[in-house]
Fold this protein.
Amino acid sequence: MRPLIAVLNGPNLNMLGLRQPAVYGRATLDDVEQVCIQTAERLDVAIDFRQTNIEGELVSWIQECRGRARGIIINPAAYSHTSIAVLDALLAVDLPVVEVHISNIHRREAFRHHSYVSQAATGVICGLGVRGYALALQAMTDMIMDEDDR
């Protein structure tokens, strides 16, 4: 059975391709999902790809990962900068976490420079566009394989 990796996306990512294309590019969330599906197939892992605009739903999805997924890739979007609830959920599930941002949050407005989620993340990928998801899947797969080798 292939290891399951949750790929969770926060608010407004359903607007990719329409919202600020100069910042986020023209790829849609469907395009991001296809990148993840193709990468997962190549890496021989399974993914559960989801997006929500609702903080509580994202927290519930994170909690569902405990005992079900081997790791979490999360683009928490604006919740990165505001949600202690998302941070607490990530800490509670005790799984490896890779935080992904399409844009480089450190080259943007000052309030975007801080991420609560980073405190729970094993690693952070930002500013590499949609390809950041493929890199996150590769990194997560490597972490899972390293863990299995112990």
In short: The chain has a mean pLDDT of 93. DSSP finds five helices and five strands in the chain. The CA atoms of residues 45 and 77 lie 24 Å apart. The radius of gyration is 14 Å.
